[in-house]
From TrEMBL:
Keywords: Oxidoreductase. The keyword DNA repair does not apply. InterPro entries: Ald_DH/histidinol_DH, Ald_DH_C, Ald_DH_CS_CYS, Ald_DH_CS_GLU, Ald_DH_N, Aldehyde_DH_dom. GO terms for molecular function: oxidoreductase activity, acting on the aldehyde or oxo group of donors, NAD or NADP as acceptor. It comes from the Bacteria. It comes from Mycolicibacterium phlei DSM 43239 = CCUG 21000. This is Aldehyde dehydrogenase.
Length: 454
């Protein structure tokens, strides 16, 4: 077993040392999870529903504690962290309704009765990234548990603390200890073992597209089910017929939320050429107005980047000769601070094509609707995006033409727990959230019962 120092990204102080588990520990956890799953699946649906509601209630009672822990571990502004902890509660409450609603079907057939059952898969392995540790964990474990499965979950090395706490809260709420296990460890050890272990029947992976491809390739050896939530390079398209003041005032929050460490970040702003100069005039004070600072302060809108290695990666996209249009401010001194940064590069620049995952946005002009659509789709990704226009027909035409899983018109909203979320193209496979998520943790079993002639 090795240990990992978890660091506060706003102060660079060591918060806690977490033991990283090895492969044998994963195998042991999966054995225990298999036993717990069989007992869980045998429980009455109403009892499983009640257990999930209790879990939600205990999370609700600890929202402040979980939020403070996320602020310290991930550098999220306190207002965001409070929303994230409350979101975990809401996701649990939403899926607490599922055990009593996974009703299968009765299908008319000749000679008998045909019914389908939504059988749980068994043990589910969930691998989460560091950018939204609590919320992304809940998107997996809540519907998986609701559908009658056990869960083993590996948080990202940099940000395990809130997920470890959620596991304790589950036990406090009365869930069996082995039903939902959090296993901190390296991706190449614990994560990889989830993928190769024959008794982990599905892997839900959220992270980079590069690692997601490896997960999918290795899962194929077992015909293992996968859900993949991967990278993004989403467009924020600003047409000349929109409310330009609102588009410019909100654009920073479409990309700099969570310091740009957001798979849905609208990191390419595309502006119709005839309003480009006016947009930039309005955008500059909006960017400079983003409040970057101590994540514990109520009015802070953006905290630090998560770690020093990640800071270095983001910095590589803003070399000394980068085409910087303007920048916001950021604290100096300890902490991995990076100011909101606006670039105006060429269409083929690396900053336009690659996911930066930091507070760096590129702005490009476009000519007309066809050019905007072509530019927005000119990426291997397809996760999110925004369309600003007051023309309803255009909003619908462009929404249908953009190859992306989650679009918003005249806003930057992407995630609601009751609507589906996921990516087109190399942004992923499958959907999380929404009413159908529990079904993705089940197999459909068809049973025909012959009726004898009287
Ligand atoms: P990452 O791919 O480096 O790591 C993600 C997780 O996978 C971590 O827990 C890591 O330990 C684990 N891992 C690493 N190697 C592994 C392996 N060989 N086998 C199994 N697991 C392994 O990603 P990250 O840097 O933590 O997260 C940032 C990325 O996540 C960005 O690309 C972002 O767009 C993406 N993301 C996507 C969504 C979405 O919903 N589409 C949401 C959040 C983040």
């Amino acid at each position: 077993m090795t240990a990992f120092e978890v660091i506060n990204p706003a102060t660079e102080e060591v918060l806690q040392v977490v033991d990283l588990l090895d492969e044998a520990a994963v195998d042991d956890a999966v054995e225990k999870a298999k036993v717990a799953q069989r007992e869980w699946a045998r429980q009455a649906p109403a009892d499983r529903a009640a257990a999930l509601r209790s879990f939600a209630a205990v999370v609700d009672a600890h929202v402040d504690e979980l939020a403070a822990l996320e602020v310290a571990n991930s550098g999220h502004p306190i207002s965001s962290a409070e929303w994230e902890a409350g979101h975990v509660r809401d996701v649990l409450n939403f899926y607490a309704a599922a055990p009593e609603r996974l009703s299968g079907k009765q299908i008319p057939v000749a000679g008998g009765l045909d019914v389908t059952f939504n059988e749980p898969l068994g043990v589910i392995g969930i691998i989460t990234p560091w950018n939204f540790p609590m919320t992304i964990a809940a998107w997996g474990f809540a519907p998986a548990l609701a559908a009658g499965n056990a869960v083993v979950l590996k948080p990202a090395e940099w940000t395990p603390l809130t997920t470890l706490r959620l596991k304790e809260l589950a036990v406090e709420a009365g869930l069996p200890a082995d039903l939902f296990q959090v296993l901190p460890g390296k991706g190449s050890v614990v994560g990889e073992r989830f993928v190769t272990h024959p008794d982990v029947r599905k892997v839900v992976f959220t992270g980079s597209t590069a690692v997601g491809k490896q997960v999918m390739a290795k899962a194929a050896a077992h015909v293992k089910r996968v859900t993949l939530e991967l990278g993004g390079k989403s467009a924020n398209i600003v047409f000349d017929d929109c409310d330009l003041e609102r588009a410019a005032a909100t654009a920073p929050y479409g990309v700099f939320d969570n310091a740009g460490q957001d798979c849905c970040a609208r990191s390419r702003i595309l502006v119709q050429r005839n309003v480009y100069d006016r947009f930039m005039e309005l955008f500059e004070p909006a960017v400079k107005g983003v409040v970057v600072g101590d994540p514990r302060a109520k009015d802070t809108e953006m905290g630090p980047l998560v770690s020093k290695p990640h800071w270095e990666k983001v910095k590589s996209y803003v070399p000394d000769d980068a085409p910087v249009a303007f920048r916001g401010s950021a604290p100096t001194g300890a902490g991995y601070w990076f100011p909101p940064t606006v670039l105006t590069p060429s269409r083929t620049d690396r900053a336009v094509r690659e996911e930066i995952f930091g507070p760096v946005v590129t702005v490009l002009p476009f000519e007309d609707e066809a050019d905007a659509i072509a530019l927005a789709n000119d990426t291997p990704y397809g996760l999110s995006g925004s369309i600003w226009t007051d023309n309803l027909s255009r909003a619908l035409r462009v929404s249908r033409a953009i190859e992306s899983g989650n679009l918003s018109v005249n806003s930057h909203s992407s995630v609601r727990y009751h609507t589906p979320f996921g990516g087109f193209k190399q942004s992923g496979l499958g959907r999380e959230l929404g009413p159908d998520a529990p079904l993705s943790f089940t197999e459909t079993k068809n049973v025909f019962i012959a009726v004898q002639e009287a």
